[in-house]
Amino acid sequence: MFRHSTRTCLVGLCALVAAVQAAPALAGGDPGGASPAPHTAARALHAQTLADLTTTMKGEAYAYAVYSLFAAEADRQGLPAVGRLFRSTAQTELNEHLREAATLAGTVGSNAANLRQAISGETYEHQVMYRRFAEQARMDGDLKAAKLFSEIATDEGRHRDAFRTALTVVTTGRGTIPAPPKADVVQVPAGLPKVKAARTRANLDTALHGEALAHAKYMLFAAHARQTGNAALARLWEGTAEVERQEHFAGEAVLAGLVRTTRENLRTAIAGEHNEATTVYPRFAKRATAVGDTAAARYWRNTAADEARHAAAFQQGLDRLH
Ligand SMILES: [Fe+2]
Ligand SMILES: [Fe+2]
Ligand SMILES: [Fe+2]
Ligand SMILES: [Fe+2]
Pairing with 278, which of 45, 112, 164, 269 sits 20 to 30 Å away (CA)? Predict the structure, then answer.
């Protein structure tokens, strides 16, 4: 979760916490389908704990997506050991940290509930978020960003339509689950930001977090669909998840200049891990303890310890480069 980190600001992606937090409230929407589903387990939690779990999931999903890009860059630079370190850490963020937060929050529901959650997120992104971002980028003279935001807005409308069709199939038992979309994979080599306005940079950062979270949640929804014997729905979730990450997130990452040299990427990762380990997760654990959400408090304490280990491993990787 280097959304809160100083380093993130240094690489030019600031002003995002407010934007990320404000977006759903402004539109009554849900970028990336961020709201937890209303399950029994989730209702038992304090509202602040649930909000902190959502923030955690955004950060973990983002870390997974960014580390995957950092791994590819390390490979390109002929540093396979660093590539492996980024890849294995990325797996921990997604398959342990995010997954456990999602379990605590009750994010995954029935196939129908998951589809409704995703339809709400896609509708917000299609109708409100990306259109506004495109318009603002155009006004600020960031024409490449305006074009990308417009294209993604169109894609999100298609995702919403496919999920609506799938919901009808799931609820009526009639019809066919749509075939999954195919991702047009975008490579993200090291590079500087290709946008100039601060507002475009902030919007890009909000969008990157939304795309990363959508990818992670759709992978969880896919696993649930498969477990419940709906392989066609699982394929739709997986195909859409790949579009969110390999096309939308990656396209935005190029414009944001998210990937730098491996040395800089390691420093960015260390700052983010350190911030989670020493500030963000201890704060969340303390708040959860205060309201009696002990399982969530334990989760954040354990996760903070993991992040401290990640920071140390990245530091070791950096030291070996000198
Ligand atoms: Fe993590
Ligand atoms: Fe989407
Ligand atoms: Fe997307
Ligand atoms: Fe981590």
Answer: 45
